[in-house]
Amino acid sequence: MEKGPYLIKGRVTITDEQGENLLVSGKDMVALCRCGHSSMKPFCDGNHERV
């Protein structure tokens, strides 16, 4: 998807600037917002489809 999210494949841990874990993925893929319109930042919630 040209204007869709960044897709990270594999199990990942995402931390904030304080070193706190935002997500420890048990999934094989995580979608990160690229459009800036997600209400779940830094994760994609599909709002890019409306902009």
Strand-helix topology:
Layout lengths: L5 E4 L3 E3 L5 E4 L4 E4 L19
Q: How would you summarize what this structure contains?
A:
The protein is mainly beta. It is 0% helix and 29% strand. The mean pLDDT is 87.
Can you tell me about this structure?
There is one protein chain. The protein is mainly β. It has one domain (6-50). The chain contains no helices and four strands. The strands form two sheets. It has a two-stranded antiparallel ribbon with strand order 1-4. Strand 2 and strand 3 (21-24) form a beta hairpin.
* Secondary-structure element string: EEEE
Structural class, judged by helices and strands? mainly beta
Q: Using DSSP, what is the number of strands? A: 4
In whole angstroms, the N-to-C terminal distance is 14 Å
The percentage helix is: under 10%
Keywords:
29% strand, two-stranded antiparallel ribbon, 4 strands, 51 residues
